[in-house]
């Protein structure tokens, strides 16, 4: 405990999955946590964090909230959306929504919080990318994989620009993680394919060399390391916590 003592963290998509596990772990390590999500009911269940409703697709909302909460030490960009489709069946609106929610959201939060970090001459930004990105090409992840590769490019660019000003920026690539959104994907795929829920879930397990899904906690531990001073010599990198997905 205490690895994040004295630090303030701002987290997007904090009401479920990887964001939620990170809220809980950061709190346990002594951070002050500002947890944000569009899901207000989900936020209400969080104990110990300061919560704010935030839709990361709104530039105005992100900059207004950043002004309101003031400077932070840690920014964890967890918001992201999985579109299922190929180059032929991905509609333009789904492509645009993928970029808006998965990439432009990070443009917004980084622009809003980086000035405060530069004033402190210190900050850690953690962007959740994915194994489906420039790391691996995965079937039916055309828009998603493209956006998550963009997250890696964005991460390296910001890291390079501010490396001498105390700012560290890292990307985390989870493998297949048991979260509410994965559960919804399994339900949808089962309905569309006529396969049972168990079979669809097994297909996700089978693509993991460790032969199991990851937990949100396993990603939160990596985020905690990257948020803490333990990783003070680490920036601009892609960190896999993927159960061997990239092997
Ligand atoms: P999740 O489904 O468990 O939670 C997503 C959260 O995002 C929800 O609380 C939802 O309300 C919130 N959200 C949705 N739209 C939003 C918006 N416009 N503004 C703010 N919040 C919004 O998610 P998860 O599976 O833990 O995914 C978190 C991140 O990890 C995403 O970027 C995702 O792409 C990435 N990721 C997940 C997996 C996986 O297998 N679950 C694998 C690789 C990467």
Automatic annotation (TrEMBL):
UniProt keyword list: NAD, Oxidoreductase
Molecular function GO labels: oxidoreductase activity
Gene3D superfamilies according to UniProt: NAD(P)-binding Rossmann-like Domain (3.40.50.720)
SUPFAM superfamilies: NAD(P)-binding Rossmann-fold domains (SSF51735)
InterPro entries the UniProt entry points to: NAD(P)-bd_dom_sf, SDR_DHRS6-like, SDR_fam
Entries under Pfam families matching the protein: adh_short_C2
Signal peptide extent: none
E.C. designation(s): 1.1.1.-
PANTHER family named in the record: DEHYDROGENASE_REDUCTASE SDR FAMILY MEMBER 6, DIHYDROANTICAPSIN 7-DEHYDROGENASE
Similarity comment: family membership: Belongs to the short-chain dehydrogenases/reductases (SDR) family.
Protein name according to UniProt: 2-keto-3-deoxy-L-fuconate dehydrogenase
Organism of origin: Variibacter gotjawalensis
